[in-house]
Design brief:
Length: about 130
């Protein structure tokens, strides 16, 4: 379950117009199911050496695969068919663990609030459901 996208070395993802770059990866960005298809497009672009092909997976970019996931995702971990994320719902808020189910495409926020990164990392490292 992965797709390939075109990313500028500055970090933006190539938009469907093949001229502009979006800060966040979304449905308007050019993406491919195969690496070879992405390479075909890169070769036709101006300055192809400035564009990288990146693999987008639920583990590397969970917001794309789970649209209900809100906030800043700081790190992810896969346990079985679930992606566990450390999320800061909004700037300055307590951290939360979010469980993203790969089979049902649902997300669930745990009840516990973590004040700092160290406390949430301990829970993250020892997470079991």
């Amino acid at each position: 379950m992965s797709i390939f996208a075109l990313q500028s070395q500055a970090g933006g993802f190539l938009d469907e117009d093949l001229k502009h770059f979006n800060k966040k990866f979304d449905d308007w960005c050019v993406h491919f199911e195969r690496y070879d298809d992405a390479m075909l497009i890169v070769e036709t672009l101006k300055n192809p050496h400035r564009i990288d092909i990146v693999e987008i997976t639920p583990l590397s970019y969970p917001q794309y695969f789970f649209p209900t996931l809100e906030g800043t995702v700081h790190t992810t971990r896969q346990i079985g068919q679930k992606i566990i994320c450390i999320v800061e719902p909004f700037m300055g808020s307590s951290f939360r663990l979010v469980i993203c189910d790969l089979l049902t495409k649902t997300t669930r926020v745990t009840n516990t609030h973590y004040k700092n990164v160290l406390s949430v990392e301990g829970a993250f490292a020892n997470f079991t459901e």
